[in-house]
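Feature request, filed as a ticket because there's no other form

It would be nice if the structure record came with a short human-readable summary line next to the tokens. Right now we just get the raw output. Example of a typical job, pasted below so the devs can see what we mean:
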Amino acid sequence: MTDSTATSKKMGLVGDGKLPDLDPPASTVGIVGWLRSNLFSGPVNSIMTLLGIGLLILVIPPVLNWTVFEAVWSGGSDACRANPDAACWAFTSSWWEFFLYGFYEKTQRWRIDLVLWALYVGVAFIIVDDEARAQRPTSSILGFIIAILSIVFISMLVKHGAPIMWML
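Raw output as currently delivered:
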């Protein structure tokens, strides 16, 4: 053994055992790590992410004001004409059938109903199936949102006089 090797062992430069495993840095795991690797991985991605966030901040508030907060929800055409700078949802209850079925004949509407029920069943399987949910959590969340919106829309249709035949 040379003199330099003996000196390095005395000074502790060469380890005798295995070092303990350390946790990864906090900036590389979790939501911060995902944001860094996907949205802020370089200058171009960072600029595009910030531009996208700025665009959303500019677009979402006026759209929400027009569609929800300042919208006309009840009344007739006079109420809609009184507030021309907002959405007019007052007519949707009288036109719900056309929105749902379009120009389909009444005898052929069962086809659309069948597709809607197939969608509901498919969404239910996505929500209930644990294995699919573990592999694709985003599809579970979207499926849950679709299911909730479907329940809301069906209850609105029934509230506004949808025939019970549609529900069968």
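Something like this underneath would help us a lot:
The chain is about 70% helix and 0% strand.
Residues 43-69 form the longest helix (27 residues).
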